[in-house]
């Protein structure tokens, strides 16, 4: 399988990140704390999820470490391509909560067919192996050992053991041996202390004893037995009726679900048709903007007509000559200017007198300070100046108030606007004609309104032409017709929108009812149920018949409980009185049957002994054939990357470097050579364990102890045509990234 892209929505410290990958080797480079380990763990999360159990290596659980703290989620999807060319979208969502259990959703979508698979782990769906096997072979996390030891692999050890004993991870010979041993123990323990054979011997002895001591039981036992048989027959009849009711109701539930799905599809089709109608209506001449354009045009046309009427009325009463001020108006204007000038002069005089008074006060203070005795004269002059200043301020205020009153009376903002204000108010009062300035303003306004009028008439005629309305010759009549059409279209649009909203509400309700249901399976179940006898009955039921059916089922269930209780009572009484007496012939028959069973079990016991011995020999023979294949593949990789030619592997996956004279254990080799040896072993092991759909090999900072010379050779092997697998290498080492870039590998920066 080739991973095309990692789409991380929320995982660890990563949010909304997309990492595009290529075939072969991909090197993902990033500084420390940039999220490389999170991106690597994201791949494992998508295929196998996150464990909630605490991990000694991590110090906490995977789930606690990698769920994003801001969103309380781990979410994303991977786009992958299987070896048959099919594109898959594999998505997983894990929501954690402090107040409720975590919720998880997994979906596998075939993007070629649209088919979805839910409720199944993607890793087991594609690779056919559990999580421990995947982690133990293809996933080298930052905190894990590179060496894939059986003792550290959990379930992987079992799969590898199967591989070594049978050359096929799906054929579990060890489990078969355990099953044979369990079967043998079930037949008879080695010390004859238990097992079915021992039980049969004891039962045979008891039957022989009963045969010797058998006697007829009382008539009460016979009567109870007869009553028990009757009640059992009644129970059988009621169970048959209950089965029929349950079958009809089950079929009815499936049929109703099918009807809901069909209703959902039909409702969706109706919504599409209505939305198409609404879209056609919006794209028509009466679509969006039609009413606004019409209203705007009507306003411009009416505004022009109103301005024309106002202008005509004004011209009818106006004089053509330029307006001159009446004597009364001139007097008002002169008075306003006189008051303005007087106010300014009085304010200036008052200011000068007050300043002189302050200077005199200062002089009096200095004379008093130096004891000249003449300070009273300047002080008296200061008081006179201050009094005069106050008088002039009062006079200034009176003039200012009079001027303000005139300005307010004639609606002028300042003295500069008094002439215009008086002229306009005189005109309003009918004391003069229209001024030339006002007439010019009216003409300019009328010209602007005419331009808007012409544009509005053109828009109305254009709307009428697009709407196939004949020219009426009256623009207002045309506007009225267009308004009628607009109102009709608006009403129609509202009706369609209302229907769409109602149908969408209905579709949402059906969608909630169908949430979490596999629709294709439900449709198939509904069709299949409809073809059955119970389904045909269910299809013919109306609401009243369904209500009666439920009542009958409830009555039958109640009667069945009562009958079962009566049966238990009779059985307890019979048990208290002892088993019914059997005839000697019956005992003889039972003893003969036990003898036959004992003979059969004896033969099976002997067969188990032979099968166990044969499987053990076969497993040892097959084991010796598989380990050399793994060693040969690993040796090929190590010979291309180091001066060493061969790797030797024992049954516990302990590796050593072998030559013609000796074996060098990885314990005495350099850390880099040991890591490289076990990386080669992982690649070889993955080739053997995954036969059909092999996963991507993931290395998170796995080459930290390998020198660049050997690493370049290893990259060359991984990047060669002889290795068709995809590899993703996460590293913070710049030299690793540069080496990969030099060899043309895909480089992704985090």
How does this model look, in words?
By secondary structure, the protein is α/β, with parallel strands linked by helices. The strands form three sheets. It has a six-stranded antiparallel sheet. A hairpin with a 5-residue loop joins strand 9 and strand 10. Helix 9 runs antiparallel to helix 13, helix 10 packs antiparallel against helix 12 and helix 15 packs across helix 16. The longest helix has 65 residues.
Q: Can you summarize this structure?
A:
Helix content is 64%, strand content 10%. The protein is built from 21 helices and 14 strands. Mean pLDDT is 78; it is low at 149-160, 163-171 and 319-327.
Overview features:
21 helices, elongated, alpha/beta, 14 strands, single chain
The major pleated sheet works out as: 6 strands, antiparallel
Stretches with pLDDT under 50, minimum 5 residues: 149-160, 163-171, 319-327
Strands in their spatial order, largest beta sheet: 2-1-4-5-6-7
Strand residues, percent? 5-15%
Mean pLDDT: 78
E-strand count? 14
The chain-level structural class is alpha/beta
Shape: elongated
Helical content stands at 55-70%
Number of helices: 21
CA distance, first residue to last residue = 24 Å
Radius of gyration from the alpha-carbon trace, in angstroms: 51 Å
């Amino acid at each position: 399988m080739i991973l095309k892209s990692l789409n991380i929505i929320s995982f660890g410290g990563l949010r909304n990140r997309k990492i595009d990958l290529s075939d072969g080797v991909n090197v993902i480079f990033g500084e420390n704390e940039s999220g490389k380990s999170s991106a690597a763990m994201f791949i494992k999360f998508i295929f196998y999820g996150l464990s909630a159990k605490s991990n000694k290596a991590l110090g906490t659980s995977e789930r606690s470490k990698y769920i994003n703290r801001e969103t309380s989620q781990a979410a994303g999807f991977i786009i992958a391509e299987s070896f048959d060319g099919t594109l898959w979208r594999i998505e997983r969502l894990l929501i954690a909560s402090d107040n409720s259990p975590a919720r998880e959703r997994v979906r596998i979508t075939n993007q070629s067919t649209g088919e979805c698979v839910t409720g199944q782990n993607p890793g087991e769906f594609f690779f056919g192996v559990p999580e421990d096997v995947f982690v133990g072979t293809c996933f080298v996390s930052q905190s894990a050992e590179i060496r894939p030891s059986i003792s550290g692999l959990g379930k992987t050890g079992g799969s590898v053991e199967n591989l070594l004993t049978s050359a096929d991870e799906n054929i579990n010979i060890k489990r078969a041996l355990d099953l044979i041993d369990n079967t043998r123990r079930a037949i008879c323990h080695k010390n004859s202390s238990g097992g079915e054979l021992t039980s049969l011997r004891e039962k045979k002895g008891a039957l022989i004893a009963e045969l010797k001591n058998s006697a007829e039981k009382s008539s009460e036992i016979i009567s109870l037995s007869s009553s028990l048989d009757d009640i059992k027959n009644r129970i059988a009849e009621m169970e048959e009726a209950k089965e029929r009711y349950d079958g009809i109701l089950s079929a009815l539930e499936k049929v109703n679900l099918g009807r809901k799905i069909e209703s959902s599809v039909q409702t969706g089709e109706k919504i599409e048709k209505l939305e198409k109608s609404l879209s056609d209506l919006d794209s028509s001449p009466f679509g969006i903007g039609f009413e606004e354009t019409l209203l705007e045009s009507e306003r411009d046309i009416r505004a022009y007509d109103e301005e024309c009427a106002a202008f005509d009325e004004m011209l009818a009463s106006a004089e053509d000559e330029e307006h001159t001020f009446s004597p009364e108006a001139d007097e008002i204007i002169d008075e306003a200017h006189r008051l303005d000038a007087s106010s300014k002069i009085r304010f200036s005089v008052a200011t000068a007198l007050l300043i002189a008074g302050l200077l005199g006060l200062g002089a009096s203070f200095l004379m008093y300070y130096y004891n000249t005795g003449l300070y009273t004269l300047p002080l008296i002059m200061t008081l006179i100046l201050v009094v005069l200043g106050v008088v002039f301020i009062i006079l200034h205020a009176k003039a200012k108030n009079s001027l303000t009153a005139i300005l307010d009376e004639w609606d002028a903002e300042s003295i500069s606007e008094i002439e215009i204000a008086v002229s306009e108010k005189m005109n309003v009062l009918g004391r003069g004609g229209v001024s030339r300035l006002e007439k010019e303003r009216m003409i300019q306004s009328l010209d602007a309104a005419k331009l808007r009028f012409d544009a509005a008439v053109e828009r109305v005629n254009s709307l009428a032409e697009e709407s196939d309305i004949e020219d009426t010759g009256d623009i207002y009549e045309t506007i009225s017709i267009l308004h009628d059409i607009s109102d009709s279209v608006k009403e129609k649009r509202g009706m369609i929108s209302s229907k769409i909203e109602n149908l969408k509400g209905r579709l949402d309700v059906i969608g909630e009812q169908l949430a979490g249901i596999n629709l294709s399976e439900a449709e198939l179940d509904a069709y299949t149920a409809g073809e059955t006898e119970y389904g045909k009955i269910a299809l013919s039921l109306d609401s009243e018949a369904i209500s009666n059916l439920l009542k009958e089922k409830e009555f039958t269930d109640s009667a069945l409980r009562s009958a079962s209780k009566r049966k238990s009572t009779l059985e307890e009484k019979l048990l208290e009185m002892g088993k019914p007496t059997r005839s000697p012939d019956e005992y003889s028959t039972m003893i003969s049957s036990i003898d036959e069973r004992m003979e059969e079990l004896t033969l099976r016991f002997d067969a188990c002994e032979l099968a166990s011995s044969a499987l053990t020999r076969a497993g040892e023979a097959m084991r010796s054939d598989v380990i050399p294949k793994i060693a040969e593949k690993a040796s090929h990789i190590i010979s291309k990357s180091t001066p060493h030619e061969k790797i030797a592997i024992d049954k516990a996956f302990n590796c050593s470097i072998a030559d013609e004279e000796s074996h060098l254990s990885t314990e005495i080799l350099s850390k880099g050579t040991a890591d490289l040896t076990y990386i080669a072993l992982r690649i070889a092991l993955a080739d053997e364990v995954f036969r059909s759909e092999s996963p991507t090999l993931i290395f998170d900072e796995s080459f930290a102890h390998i020198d660049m010379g050997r690493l370049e050779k290893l990259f060359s092997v991984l990047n060669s045509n002889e290795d068709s697998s995809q590899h993703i290498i996460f590293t913070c080492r710049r030299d690793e990234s540069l080496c990969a870039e030099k060899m043309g590998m895909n480089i992704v920066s985090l």
